[in-house]
Amino acid sequence: MSPSTARLRASPLFWPLPPALVLAPAGLILAMTFAGTWDRLDWRALDWVYLSAQVGAQARLPVVVAAGAAALVAGRFTRRSLVFAQPWQPRAERDVPLRHAVVVVAWCLGAYLVGLLPLTVVTATRGAGSPDAVAVAGALTGFAALTLLGYLCGVAARGLLAVPVAVGTVFLLTSLVFVSDPWTALSLQPPFEPFLGMREAAALGPYRLGFFLLLTVAVAWTTAWLLRAPRRFSAVHGAAVAAVAVTVVLPHLHPFPLVVRAPGAAVCDEHGGVRYCVHEGHAEELTAITGLAAPVFDAYGVADALPREVRDQSLARGDEQAFDGPGQDVLWLPVYPGWDPYEEVPETMADWLIPDVGRCGSGSVASLDRGARPQERRAAVVYGLRAWLASQAFGGGASGHALFADADPDQVSAWIRQDRERLASCEVDPEELPWRT
């Protein structure tokens, strides 16, 4: 062994573990985190609420790697076959498991945090809102707790068998949130991606943080108990394990609300009789929304069919308010991290204006084939109008639908005004379009 290698192995950054045993999983975690977040660095509408939730969401697979690494360390360095670990002796000195755990958790969690750094910097530069410190603390505590759970698997199992046991156990625990909502209080992440205008319910974050702290204590105590010789029952240890079990059961008996609405101040503009309002954190999106929506509304040409207001869903005070939007002449537009206004705004505005294709009786099937049913041909008119309206956001040109390929905007607007009632009930056949006769 070269002197430099010997110094590296004796470094307090790794001791008492071989450097490769922590550098390999740390490097893999760093690469996974970069890969999971790199494409989001140029996303629109990034905010701190989203980033706070991503601290837990992006950890789902890295923590599995960390747990596997911890299990490998425990399985290799605390196994029963070690020459100094006779049946009547402790399998390791009391502070050795602590040093193992500190080194593995520090390197794996540190690599994960470094991987999140670019997204954090971008969010801090142009993101809105404020970080959810409790959600972030709960996710990072959960990362450490589940890594320690992997170490416990390595102590309890024999040799390399501990690695797949730990990987499978931790992967299962991080995936249960997608099976049932009550697991959200016991998981690293919510089952969806919250963003500006909402936040985790008040009790959810502290409960998750408390659960992972309790799990850390119980796992550490159980690990020490398994390595002890002779093993003695401890009432405090039993109480800690029982408390973890109770904490797991409680959210299933009384589920927590997951999120609550947290609308902020609105920034508004008006164009063509329609008022456009977005959350103050989305103020940079207002120009794009107005510029893309107004041509669609102008092309339709019927003022009383337009919404009174187009509002950012981040301003909604509840789900019911957003669902009741059409009844209040309000079009609620979802603005979220990574959204593409050039695709979503024209299509959403066109969807507001065209009739429900379900009225055509075609089962949402549209076709212009020779053997198509009349209902399917009429549905094709509705879909064609939708595509044509959306294309007006970009100055017209190719509408994306053969029925409206040669249509003049003034001619389409006049046809809409003339046949509006028949169009609303899906009674217009393709042969009746003025520019095709």
Notes on the structure:
- Keywords: Membrane, Transmembrane, Transmembrane helix.
- This protein is mainly alpha-helical and 437 residues long.
- It is 53% helix and 6% strand.
- β4, α10 and β5 form a beta-alpha-beta unit.
- α3 runs parallel beside α6, α10 runs parallel beside α12 and α12 crosses α13.
- The mean pLDDT is 87.
Question: What distinguishing features does this structure have?
Answer:
single chain, transmembrane, 4-stranded mixed sheet, 437 residues, mainly alpha, transmembrane helix
Short description:
By secondary structure, the protein is mostly helical. The protein folds into three domains: 19-260, no CATH class; 263-353; 354-436, no CATH class. The chain is built from 15 helices and six strands.
Give the count of helical stretches. Answer: 15
Summing up helix and strand content along with how strands pair, one would put the structural category as mainly alpha
- Report the C-alpha radius of gyration, rounded: 29 Å
Question: What would the average pLDDT be, to the nearest integer?
Answer: 87
Question: Low-confidence parts, pLDDT < 50 over ≥5 residues?
Answer: none
Estimate the strand proportion. 5-15%
Count of DSSP E strands?
A: 6
| Percent helix | 40-55%
Number of domains: 3
Please state how the strands of the largest beta sheet are arranged side by side. 3-4-5-6
Q: Characterize the largest beta sheet: strand count, sense, and whether it forms a barrel.
A: 4 strands, mixed
Shape: elongated
Compressed to H and E, one letter per element, the order equals HHHHHHHEHHEEEHEHEHHHH
Distance between the termini: 89 Å
